[in-house]
Design goal:
With 537 residues, this protein is α+β, with helices and mostly antiparallel strands. 45% of the residues lie in helices and 15% in strands. It contains 20 helices and 16 strands. It has an eight-stranded mixed sheet with strand order 1-5-6-11-10-9-7-8, sandwiched between helices. The chain has a five-stranded mixed sheet with strand order 13-12-14-15-16, with helices on both faces. Helix 5 packs antiparallel against helix 6, helix 7 runs antiparallel to helix 8 and helix 10 packs parallel to helix 14. The two termini are 59 Å apart. The protein binds histidyl-adenosine monophosphate. Histidyl-adenosine monophosphate binds next to strand 6, strand 10, strand 11 and helix 16.
Length: 537
């Protein structure tokens, strides 16, 4: 292979990772419009923005979303934190430096290394770099005790202690058996969703002391190791909102859904369908009782189900209702329905949510099989599908999660929210022809000559200050070529600046659509463009 070919091959190696992609102009203009519309609509409902870290402790997600879910079981990107890695190295070096009692008489170097190591472990536990499990806390206690004893043994005793070498021998055996007692969990994960992080932040910043409820929205990338396909990516984007604290009044559920539908309406999304359900709460007289009943019924039809559903009979029977497998549908349709097993409070809550949606003119369809794939939900669940998405047609999912904040160590707190899959929303908008027609430049400045260039720089500055987008070519070009370029870039106007224009202080503006040309002084030019802008908007 020639050098040149090898270099070319090398360059080709860099590609976006499977399931991730670059978002490029002009499509990013649509992304911006979608996000800006979300900010505008959510602000009218008094939601404020929260910006969250992209990674958190794995335990936060595991505890919130549930270890039996697909997201936690197989889709998280979990990374070994560097501090853990460097602590591993410290342990290795500490043991490398371990003196041998039969040959060593001077332990001082080792003892000072040990003191430094105790400090590192202390910092790592305090900073959450290694988990504060019971085992780690006990291991740290042992380590401190070992260190105290090592310091004691290394005190000068002028040879009065005959057992000193044997004591060191015992201590070193203890140090050796300490070696693997710290747990180094892979303790950081890229966020697969943001509800858990919002609840963590609510607790961490004592937001329960603010007027309740606290209404927050977020946008940004989420990460799940799913099999990539149209509308399903490993790095995808969500626009989400959460209402935390206050009451669980059904009006809150309905208002959150109303806001969501108002957002879709404002974007001009067509064919969005809202599905709702209530999955009750986790008590014997409600969901727990239903789940047991479901398990019994599923066991009876086990042989007719696929391997995934068979496994879920034990781990998470509700998720069988989610199955899209064609052959299972007739059996699932005959299973008991949760609506018939809700406790009185949950039944009344669900009925009130529906009434509240009707009051707001929000159309919905009930779907008793809508159980959602994350464990934190209770009572109201909802999903919105949109056209143009193939099998991945859920453009938004959400629901109520009272109790999640408490599960994470906070005070009893009500919660409800949703997350929109922005990638899917964009695909659907494009499918229904609602992508914004992206405009080219407002003005392309065609200039020739030194003096004209100086005037062009000033004109560009003034036009940009007034809010117009301007392309100022960096190199002089013949007017014919420059106007061709203006046409290619989709400029609305070409501002022609040559020696004549500069001498006369009158600038020529060509309207690209019809080829007409007019002359203006600099202030008149700005005024003309402003007027045209008003007419076209
Ligand atoms: P989720 O249903 O897991 O809920 O995700 C919400 C939306 O994110 C989905 O409806 C879908 O549009 C989009 N989405 C999920 N996975 C992917 C993927 N791999 N590629 C592209 N889009 C995807 C949640 O995340 C909850 N945190 C929603 C919530 C907020 N519930 C209460 N508050």
């Amino acid at each position: 292979m020639s050098d040149a070919t090898a270099k070319k091959e090398d360059r080709r190696k860099f590609q976006a990772i499977r399931g991730t992609r670059d978002l490029l102009p002009p499509e990013t203009a649509l992304w911006n419009r979608v996000e800006q519309t979300a900010y505008d609509v959510f602000a009218t409902y008094n939601f404020g923005e929260i910006r969250l870290p992209v990674f958190e402790q794995t335990e936060l997600f595991a505890r919130s979303i549930g270890t039996d879910t697909d997201v936690i079981g197989k889709e998280m990107y979990t990374i070994l934190d560097r501090t853990s890695e460097s602590l591993w190295r410290d342990i290795y070096e500490l043991y490398e430096a371990l003196p041998h009692p039969s040959v060593s008489r001077d332990y001082s170097g080792f003892v000072s290394r040990l003191i430094g190591f105790v400090k590192r472990v202390d910092d790592a536990l305090a900073g959450g770099d290694i988990p504060t499990t019971e085992r780690n806390v006990a291991a740290f206690g042992d380590l401190k005790e070992i260190c105290r004893r090592a310091q004691e043994l290394s005190m000068p005793d002028e040879g009065r202690r005959p057992t000193i070498q044997a004591d060191w021998g015992t201590l070193i055996d203890r140090i050796l058996s300490w070696r693997n007692t710290l747990d180094f969990e892979e303790n950081l994960s890229l966020r697969p969703e943001a509800t858990a992080s919002v609840c963590r932040a609510y607790i961490e910043h004592g937001m329960q002391a603010l007027p309740q409820p606290v209404k927050l929205y977020y946008t940004g990338p989420m990460f799940r190791r799913e099999r990539p396909q149209k509308g399903r990516y490993r790095q995808f984007y969500q626009i989400g909102a959460e209402v935390l604290g206050g009451t669980d009044a059904p009006a809150i559920d309905a208002e959150v859904i109303e806001m969501l539908m108002a957002f879709f309406d404002k974007l001009g999304l067509q064919g969005a369908t809202l599905y709702i359900n209530s999955i009750g709460h986790n008590a014997d007289n409600c969901r727990r009782g239903y789940v047991e009943k479901l398990r019994t019924e599923l066991a009876k039809i086990k042989d007719n189900l696929g391997p995934d559903s068979q496994r879920r009979i034990d781990t998470n029977p509700l998720r069988v209702l989610d199955s899209k497998l064609e052959s299972e549908q007739p059996y699932i349709e005959k299973l008991p329905r949760i609506a018939d097993h809700l406790c009185d409070e949950c039944k009344a809550h669900y009925a009130a949510v529906k009434r509240q949606l009707e009051l707001r003119g929000v159309l919905y369809q009930e779907n008793w099989r809508l159980v959602r794939g994350l464990d934190y939900y209770m009572r109201t669940t909802f999903e919105i599908t949109a056209p143009g998405l193939g099998s991945q047609n859920a453009v938004c999912g959400g629901g109520r999660y009272d109790g999640l904040v408490e599960l994470l160590g906070g005070p009893p707190t009500k919660g409800i929210g949703f997350a929109i899959g922005e990638d899917r929303l964009i695909l659907s908008l494009q499918a229904c022809g609602k992508e914004k027609v992206v405009q080219g430049r407002d003005v392309y400045i065609a200039w020739m000559g030194e003096r004209a260039y100086a005037a062009a720089i000033h004109a560009a500055k003034d036009l940009r200050n007034a809010g117009f987008s301007v392309e100022l070519p960096p190199i002089e070009q013949k007017f014919g070529k420059a106007l061709g370029q203006a046409d290619k870039l989709g400029a609305k106007y070409a501002l022609i600046l040559g020696d004549n224009e500069v001498s006369e202080a009158l600038w020529t503006l060509k309207t690209m659509a019809d080829g007409t040309q007019q002359k203006f002084t600099a202030p008149d030019l700005l005024e003309f463009l402003r007027q045209q802008e008003k007419v076209s908007s």
